[in-house]
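Protocol step 4 of 5: obtain the predicted structure for the target chain.
Materials: sequence only (see below). No template structures provided, no constraints applied. The aim of this step is simply to have a reference model before the mutagenesis design in step 5. Sequence pasted as it appears in the construct record:
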Amino acid sequence: PDLPLARPVSPALPTVTAIEFRRQSVFDSAEATSWITRLANKLHVETRASVVRHELLFRAGNPFDTGLVAESARNLRRLGIFRSVAIDSVTTDSGLVARVTTRDGWTTELDFSVQSSGSQVAWSTEYYETNFLGTNSIVLVKYLQGVDRSASQFEFIRPRLIANTIGTDLYYENRSDGYLYYVGLSKPFTSLASPNGADILLEDFDGRVFRFTGGQAIASDTVERRSTLARLHAATAWHADGRGYLRIGITAQLRRDDMVAEAADVAMPRTVTAAIGPWIEWSHARYLVTRSFEHLGQEEDVDLSTRVHLDLLAVPRALGYAHDGVGPSASIRLGAPIPGGFGILEGTAGGIYSAAGLDSGTATVAATVVVKPSGDRQRLLFHIDGGWSKGAAIGSEFDLGFGFGPRAFPAHAFTGNRSWFATAEYRYTLFPELGMLAGVGIATFVDRGGAWFAGAPERNGTDAGVGLRIGPTRQADLRTLRIDIARRFANDVEPAGWVIVIGKGFTFRTMQ
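Step 4 output (structure tokens):
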């Protein structure tokens, strides 16, 4: 990986004479006492030592810098293949030895899953491996029967496929109404102090796009879309160390994006545009190691860094646009510890401006607060977000329902260019690790929110209920399974009633 940029190091720091790797399988020797745990270890391919070594930001002969050690541990946890990571030091006759202990998580899923929100049900069957042959590679083969369409999906991701530096992402999706594929190559910033990074994306899509209005299950508009995108991001660090960075980069893209109403008996137009411009990002790093946020039982890193990102794209008529214009955008993320927990505030805004003013744009804001009222087993979670857009293309509206937003409402229950959502959940962990397999908890919650189009009446929905939370402790996937019984309160479309809701993770999305 990229080693950190040069920075002053205190001569008082001891030197690492050697690095010792302790790799453990899903169940360690003290736990593998039954036939099922021993079978799980035999079926699991242990993570290769080279995978662990490549994420370390220090080497033998380097000072034992606690900042780099902590960031190396975060890098390893971020891979999503370990159930726990620890890096410490031990003094021996030969000097200071850095000891890196990793405990593998179960990364193979042969799964049949169901997502439900009352009368609507989506199901899928898949083979999903996030540590293929112990190489930190993702392999996905999946069939999905969704609410709007069915699809077969195939994906391969290897973060360090080329020269242990260049990552690759290959994806193909064969839909019942079209296809999508993309190829990505990336040389990421492997640490806060990395000097440079870049990525290239090639994407092609051909299929139908729907617009839903008024909470109706049948699309009000359907268009045929043909889209091809080639995009480059590249950046270098003006300043970078373990406390943060200032990066400046460039974005360049070429896009073909043709859309025509499905009912129209006309040839699809051909629209080709290009855009280019600089961007800058500043971050002051702050991380918190916690439990029972996204998962039950396992340690996880929460990013509380302050981060500001600014883009400015040139979108002139000469590059295919209707008018000469610019495309500025900005995002900000603030995080901070608070008594008993932490808080995160996020915001984004961007659009296309011409001489006549704003042609199109989107803005969002979100806040999340997590606290533990008493003891490590309890968590209170609050989240609120809102969004505004103008000139959004069909299919890019705010879309709440079916697990995101008010969870007891069906897919596309709330759509539009105005949106808001608030949720509160109290969670209690009954068993941090039941039978060495899963953390189990219970929760109670309330949701309210909605989306609508400008000029139309505001549309909202409310639900409340109780549920079960299951977080496999030997599995690398941090998302907790939700099984909820929710009381849906009537609105202008959906009647009141009790609904069983099944899903994974949160009912909202964050920028982390």
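Step 4 remarks: Residues 66-78 form the longest helix (13 residues). Confidence is low (pLDDT under 50) at residues 1-9.
Proceed to step 5.
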